[in-house]
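## retry 2 of 3
previous attempt timed out at serialization; input unchanged, resubmitting
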Amino acid sequence: MTRFLALLLLLAPGLRCAYAGDPEALRTWRAGERVSEQEVAAYGIDRCFACCEIDDATFGRMRGKSYKAECTLPRSELRYLKVLHRNLAGDILLGEIICNEAISGDLLEIFRTLYDAAYPIERMVLIDEYDAQDGPSMRANNSSAFNFRFIAGTAKLSNHSRGMAVDINPLYNPCVRVRNGRRLVDPAQGAPYADRTRDFPYKIDEDDLCCREFIRHGFTWGGHWKSLKDYQHFEKRQ
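## retry succeeded, writing output
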């Protein structure tokens, strides 16, 4: 049977493609879906790391959510990225992220490097899938970038509002601050991971490949900040 199948695959290119895996999931690109090595090979790895302008369908997902009525950033300055990533189990997942055009090339290079190294990122869908609410997105350990919003408790726009900041594996890399002698962790469910002396999955530290790649591309890491520690956060100022 094995020799017969091998002969069929040799003689029938069409059958060989079908056996390798149908890349339909990659053509439609529904972020969060699992795909196989065979599907990626059939579709083409380079096509899996792509940048495009925000089309009407994508903007429809964003309008009133991450792209709020008062958003001051022109839609033309944003880009939609398709990337592959792997979770802790090694599954290949379709990812998507929206960022500023100025860092789109950086992010494609970073996420390609992380994918090739099998670096684990659990989830990467638009934050609009969570109604642009940081809490639910972080609790789902969803990595994201653009979201027009103010820094919590202030009237200052977050760097996410310009699409110049990225949060990676936020549940396991929470934002930690001390206020009136009390430690505050965001998301609250990330409190067990505020102790950075511990080892646990999806942890980012300064020797981590993810951190090193972002810094190599000119980003700063929130884990290096003094007034608070935002271990999930990478940003670039221009």
